[in-house]
Amino acid sequence: MDPKEIVRAGYDTVSDAYRDDQGGGPAGLDIRYADWLAELIPRLTPSTRVLDLGCGCGLPTTKLLAERFRVTGVDFSPLQIERARRLVPRAQFLCADMTAIDFPRGSFDAVVSFYAIIHVPQAEHRTVYAGIRRWLRPGGLFLATIGAMATTGIDDDYLGAPMYWSHPDLTTSLAWLADLGFEVLWTRFIPEANTGHTLLLARSA
Ligand SMILES: C[S@@+](CC[C@H](N)C(=O)[O-])C[C@H]1O[C@@H](n2cnc3c(N)ncnc32)[C@H](O)[C@@H]1O
Question: How far is CA 167 from the centre of its chain?
């Protein structure tokens, strides 16, 4: 089965289990988003255009951002997007694959992507980063959780459905981002059980 189809079908199945209509979700994930966005929001002006890549059901990130900014959420799970349109009516949503979608150059002042690029086959990560770089205006900001350690594989029962993850180690991702013209402002390890991810803030040169 195509790995992206595993992910798309997986989030159609686990959407509610991953995050309910009140924004509650798997233990440990809920408390962090507001803190992470607090690193970004003071750097943005009220008319800012923000893209949320892999936005899920829109809670909590798209909703928090849409209270202040013009936000577009993208996700390729039809159920996630259906819920997002209902839960965050102030934002615009597109049901699309982030590796295939395109926007005009400089369309956004900021791009956020939490726990989503880690589901894209790593051979396509550079394409995703190149798109983000193109869609950001010069000086635009990119805040994301990406892989810390290299891994590619399938869990047969993630909240009740098969799920696929794929990412290189952080050094490789940072090299791709630098090569594409991002200045990485900081990275932070976000521990999670026996593993963890990297939170990263970068600026488009
Ligand atoms: C772990 S959830 C995270 C959702 C939200 N960003 C959050 O942190 O709560 C990952 C989301 O990324 C979406 N996703 C994964 N690969 C994608 C792709 N290639 N294009 C668009 N969305 C994708 C999934 O459908 C899912 O909704």
Answer: 13
For ligand 1, pick from 55, 122, 158, 167 the residue to mutate: most ligand atoms within 8 Å of CB: 55
120 lines ligand 1 (CB under 6 A): yes
For 3-204, CATH number out of 3.20.20.10, 3.10.129.10, 1.20.1050.10, 3.40.50.150 equals 3.40.50.150
CA-based nearest residue to 50, from 29, 74, 34: 74
Assess whether the C-beta atom of 158 lies below 6 angstroms from ligand 1: no
Q: Is the peptide bond before 46 cis (omega within 30 degrees of 0)?
A: no
pLDDT in tens, 108-125: 999 999 999 999 999 999
Please list, in sequence order, all residues whose beta carbon lies within 8 angstroms of the beta carbon of residue 60, skipping any fewer than 6 positions away.
Answer: 23, 30, 33, 34
